[in-house]
Amino acid sequence: MYRPVAAEGAMLYFLLIKLYIIDPMYQYSLESFSMFFFKAISKTAENDDDREKVRNLVSNIRMTIYQWVARGLFERHKQIFLSLLTFRLMQKGQLEEEYNAMQMNFLVSCPLTTDVPRPAVLKDWLPEIAWYSVQSLIKIEPFEQFATHLEKEMPRRFNEWYNELAPENCKLPGDWKTLDKQPF
Fold first, then answer.
1. How many angstroms separate the CA atoms of 119 and 125, rounded?
2. DSSP string over 70-116
3. Which of 37, 40, 104, 111 is deepest in the core (most CB within 10 A)?
4. Residue 31 CB-density burial (10 A; 0-12 exposed, 13-18 middle, 19+ buried)
5. Is residue 36 within 8 Å of residue 12, measured between CB atoms?
6. Which of 147, 144, 151 minimizes the C-alpha distance to 102?
7. What is the average per-residue pLDDT within 172-176?
8. pLDDT score of 97
9. In CATH, which of 1.10.3470.10, 3.30.420.10, 1.10.10.60, 1.10.8.1220 is domain 3-91?
10. Neighbours of 64 (CB within 10 A)
């Protein structure tokens, strides 16, 4: 019955011990993790329904550990830790959002495909490395036509979007604006 609680603890601990990759200063002992883990358990309210009790334990452990770790992180690293936690929960199917391994790999590593040279119409404004990223992106569904639209069908509209002060807050040109509804 308590396996989800143990799984949550293990998942959180293994996320924590990998934070040293971001900064060598982030090193957490199993002893300190255990202390906060058991503190979260003791703070969880009793409940007669076993399933509800397990859900409350998991939720309380997650929040307690997150608050403890976030308190010691630099501000710029808090978003990274929260993203790692979110991606792991997506991967385990504990969030409503669907986890897609290809999309996650692209997001994390941004592979480059250098087979296709950058078209002349894009040379004035799109960096070459961005074009190589687009060539990798088109291997993922639903982005198969993205390079064609960028290069041939709407280069001027993409250029205007690219030159916005905050393009991440603006809708993409054409039918690509529907991507706002997808987490990736």
1. 11
2. HHTS-HHHHHHHHHHHHHHHHHTT-SSSPP-HHHHHHHHH-----SS
3. 40
4. exposed
5. no
6. 144
7. 89
8. 84
9. 1.10.8.1220
10. 19
Residue ranges, comma separated, of all CATH 1.10.8.1220 domains in the chain are: 3-91
pLDDT greater at residue 33 or residue 96: 33
Tokens coding 88: 């792991």
- Whole-prediction pTM value? 0.73
Q: List pLDDT tens digits, range 126-158.
A: 999 999 999 999 999 889 999 999 999 999 999
Specify the pLDDT at position 181.
Answer: 79
Residue with tokens 């790692």: 84
N-to-C CA span, the chain: 34
Q: Indicate the average pLDDT of the chain.
A: 92
Nearest to 183, CA basis, from 118, 104, 128, 119: 104
Q: Which of 17-31, 40-54, 82-96, 170-184 has the lowest mean pLDDT?
A: 170-184
